[in-house]
Amino acid sequence: MSAMVNMIVLDGDDNVGIALRDIAANEQACDARGLQLTAGERIVQGHKIALRDIAAGERVIRFTMAVGITTAAIPRGRLVHVHNVKSQYLNNDEDHYE
Fold first, then answer.
1. Segments making up each domain of the chain, as ranges
2. What is the edge-to-edge ordering of all strands in the sheet holding 79-80?
3. What is the overall mean pLDDT for the chain?
4. Core vs surface per residue 19-42: b (16+ CB within 10 A) or e
5. Which residue spans within the chain are E strands per DSSP?
6. C-alpha distance from residue 52 to each of 76, 93, 98 (Å)
7. What fold does the segment set 7-87 form as a domain?
8. 1 pLDDT band (50/70/90 cuts)?
9. pTM (2 decimals)?
């Protein structure tokens, strides 16, 4: 039996997937092509998960587009978010509202 799809990866060059629903820590994250990895922490629906180890200073590629630069190394299966990525879209801290 195949695993249920719970993340989307648009392109083979993407280094992050997007959670289609909340994914629990230690749960398998699976895409429609059969890519599977273990979530290293809870990934909330709509958030990014690292598909491979991503080095500090590397571009985050989502849906074939660079969306940010990592500010720290991100291990495979971990959350990719504002605590470890600088946005390509926002120019400074005043542009970012939390």
1. 7-87
2. 7-8, 16-19, 48-50, 79-80
3. 91
4. bbeebeeeeebbbeeeeebebbee
5. 7-8, 16-19, 28-30, 36-38, 48-50, 59-62, 65-70, 79-80, 85-87
6. 4, 28, 27
7. 2.30.130
8. very low
9. 0.88
